[in-house]
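**Fold in tokens:**
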Amino acid sequence: MNPQAQRTQNLMLAAAQDLLSEHGAEAVTHLKVAQNAGVARATVYRHWPDRAAILVDLLRTSADVAPVPTDPDLPIIDRITATLATFAKALNGEGGRTLAAMIGLAEWDEDVFAALERMTQFGPMLLRTIISDGVADGSLLAETEPGLVADMLIGPLYFRRLLYHDHLDDTYIETIVGRTITPLLST
């Protein structure tokens, strides 16, 4: 992306973040982002074809972290711990606040629901892949269900951060991984 387009996109994302913070996810529309950023509505559409795409980018940028695949040569428990630590870092920051605002609205707003659904394509899906790889290489028991185990690992993070507003630290993550994954390890 050229520098001018990147500056414009950053300006629009800042405007969208302001709208989200001040008025909630329902206020993040192409028109309002354009007005707050001082750009044409067509410019907003050029960067994000639908409202859900704006909300997804808000989540990505406010989380300030992108899940990165871990080294496949690491033990499975270390790979899972590192991935959950990435999620925790995102939830502990502005990303957690953005996600909380969007979860509440997703029940009634199809665009918000679509944005959250898209987020699972690169976050929790990475964890499911790591668990599937662990089953495939024999690190985890064959009867391990990757989707269910991923939910069991991620669920407590969301619950503690979004409901109780707790800070997620390494000790908590290591405890969750240890208690969930250790019984599933092949010996």
About this structure: The chain has a mean pLDDT of 87. Residues 3-49 form a domain with the Arc Repressor Mutant, subunit A fold (CATH 1.10.10.60). The CA atoms of residues 50 and 71 lie 35 Å apart. The radius of gyration is 18 Å.
